[in-house]
Amino acid sequence: MDYHVPSPFTCNESLPGPSMTDMCSTSTFAVFMTLLGSLVQKNEKISGMCERVKSIDSPDPEYDYIVVGGGAAGSVVAARLSEISHWKVLLLEAGDDEPAAAAIPSYYSAVTQSRLDWKYQTTNESYACFSTNRSCLYTAAKVLGGSTVHNGMIYLRGNPTDYNNWAAMGNEGWTWDEVKPFFLKAEDNGEIDRVGRFWHSTGGPLSVERFPYRPPFADSILEAAKEAGFEISQDLTGDKITGFTIIQSTTKNGVRRSSGASYLRPIRNRENLQISLNSTVTRVVIENGRAVGVEYFQNGEFKTVSASQEVVLCAGTVRSPQILLLSGIGPEEHLKLMDIKVVQNLPGVGSNYHDHMYFMINFTINEPDVYDNNWAAATEYLDFQTGPLSSTGLGQVVAELASSTTTPDFPDIQIFGLGYDADCAPGEIGALRSTGKRTIAMVVGYQHPKSKGRISLASNDPFKYPTIWGNYLSESSDVDGLIEAINYVMRLADTNALKAYNITLSVSTLTACNNFTYPSTDYWKCAIQQDTFPQAHGSGSCKMGPEHDAMAVVDHELRVRGIKGLRVADTSIMPQIISGNTGAPTIMIGERASEFIKKDAAWRSDLCSPRSAIC
Ligand SMILES: Cc1cc2nc3c(=O)[nH]c(=O)nc-3n(C[C@H](O)[C@H](O)[C@H](O)COP(=O)(O)OP(=O)(O)OC[C@H]3O[C@@H](n4cnc5c(N)ncnc54)[C@H](O)[C@@H]3O)c2cc1C
């Protein structure tokens, strides 16, 4: 394997936006950010300008394998398939390459809401997002690396029980013991002596370590957790999966490593892998029940490219089902309604969509309320990739806790902090905010959601966004889980460790909940309906399942039911979302899909003649 092998020196001249200037609107800050942006771009350790992949404008007419979407899973699949040197692989990605700013951990939201975000909105929510007109924002990156370019970099794998449950649903080969080797294959843990080789590994493409910096208040939260009777874990992906921790992240030496940066940049000179950016796949071409290529849109033109072996959809939980539907694969009635010829009636396409929901509780603490985005922080980061810009502030304080409805070894509540981010100041650089007190938040999420929604076509026009109906919080147990999580946060705030900061719950600004005593359970129930957000871990819309499950879209080796030469490999295949953040599990799915494809190809070359009916 040739990861980490240095390649010939070729540097990109410029990168796509958003530029760092666009991230702050005030004039003092615009100058600062422009300068910082140009210094970041010139700093190879941060921007990786000399190891960027090159996009091709005119793909060849035919490849062996076509991978659609270069996100968390797609980057993995493209890299692993092209390890077979005689396979010709094409990766088609709708977005551009990563902007330099995304590499800076504290600017983790730089891409969010920019032109590199698909900016989805859900519709017709009956139980959530009332304050935003019953439509929830669902962010997903349209960029090489997908949402690993703007995610919070938290490294978690979910719980062994999640995978054992998938296997118990009839998905052979997906128990924890069977998926764990693929997490290890992906991983290059920079703290292996601390976290140990039973749970972790080194040598994989994905760098995992803790951020080099954390604000002292992060340690005070851990002290508070201990005082409140919660456990402290040194590693939530190790043998202590419950408690509060300082989390490991998908970073290397203070710089974000997206799946694109991790898997594709080291192999950018591999001749049998071609990558075409700004190429949006509009449908899979199917002939006689087999996927034989894709149609895509690039530079104002529709084009087609053939696949002699397989097409692998890795376009994420919103777009993979959309592409299947546009290709005539999905619920018959819906396809007819959309005036699309039915190729394969698969009623489950788009169903079973679900996500973790989270809710934010704001507090103030007695700490100077400085903006952490200042010259001192910028200089330290440019020189050493340390200091406030090298982390997500309180975002690295993460807890996995069990509510009263689960067992201690299968936690269903996640809590993480927010605050000490390097955001833009409205006035002078380094100035104090007006209140003089620092605002922080504790975010709670419920990880065993039962509410299920649907992705469907709004139109047969491939450029019209699909309809995302989250149906979030329709099951009352999902709300109850969040209420228990809020009570845990209140327990945390009621400790001497945090009272030393005069931690104070912020005043409620939700007028819609004025009828309820603040803070009471009824108030929180009202507030959750008003202001809860999907965590952008959307899963399940092309569910994996056994043959007897009529709603299964792919089998246990991720093959689309009823169609040859077509697989789906991304978060959409999860039959039930895992208990934790979905990035690393999706990378594991990409690793697993690649193995399935290689195994099938070996089997075919051993047993099948080239045009055999069974192959
Ligand atoms: C704001 C945010 C914060 C998050 N925080 C964390 C975290 O801290 N830790 C964690 O583990 N997970 C986190 N996640 C979740 C994690 O990043 C996602 O679950 C994961 O990236 C999903 O992987 P995917 O491969 O399914 O899709 P994506 O990573 O979204 O990749 C899909 C790719 O397909 C491309 N594409 C879509 N349609 C087409 C088309 N028609 N043609 C060609 N290309 C197409 C997209 O542009 C994209 O690049 C977060 C997600 C978000 C959005």
UniProtKB/TrEMBL annotation:
InterPro entries: FAD/NAD-bd_sf, GMC_OxRdtase, GMC_OxRdtase_N, GMC_OxRtase_C
Domain spans labelled Glucose-methanol-choline oxidoreductase N-terminal: 316-330
Gene giving rise to this polypeptide: LOC107218631
A Pfam family the protein falls into: GMC_oxred_N
Protein's UniProt name: Glucose dehydrogenase [FAD, quinone]
Homology family: Belongs to the GMC oxidoreductase family.
Naturally occurring in which organism (per UniProt): Neodiprion lecontei (Redheaded pine sawfly)
Superkingdom of origin organism: Eukaryota
